[in-house]
Write a structure and sequence with these properties.
The protein is of the alpha/beta class. The chain has a single domain, classed as Rossmann fold. The protein contains 5 helices and 3 strands; from the N terminus they run αβαβαβαα. A 3-stranded parallel sheet has the order 1-2-3, with helices on both faces. Helix 2 links the parallel strand 1 and strand 2. It starts with a helix and ends with a helix.
């Protein structure tokens, strides 16, 4: 719950006059039950309306990667958010840099250096 609130604060601080992107890191077996999935789709739609243009998803330490990808792809396709899956932060950053969005890759790299995966 704290993470959801913090994410809302972070998104609220964005300059929504320009498109923005998100980089998410998922660990372990992170599947959404149907009720949570529906809320996730609604929140994703709101983020898209607020300017979310692309989403890079790094998935680590899981035995069900394909299942996670299928579930998230279903949600993001329903909303119409450009997304891609990766197994490293560096790959995700490279993809985001190609999405024509202003990106501070040095800050992202420093963040993940300070908060190891």
């Amino acid at each position: 719950m704290h993470g959801t609130r913090q994410m809302a604060v972070n998104i609220g601080n964005l300059d929504k006059s320009r498109p923005w992107a998100q980089l998410s890191c998922l660990f372990g077996e992170c599947l959404l039950p149907p009720s949570t999935f529906n809320m996730f789709v609604k929140q994703s739609k709101i983020r898209k309306e607020m300017g979310l243009q692309a989403l890079a998803i790094v998935i680590l330490d899981t035995d069900i990667m394909n299942t996670i990808k299928q579930q998230l792809t279903s949600a993001y396709q329903e909303v119409g958010i450009e997304h891609a899956f990766f197994t490293s932060i560096d790959e995700a950053i490279q993809w985001l840099e190609q999405q024509h969005i202003e990106l501070d890759s040095q800050f992202i790299t420093q963040f993940y250096n300070d908060h190891p995966l």
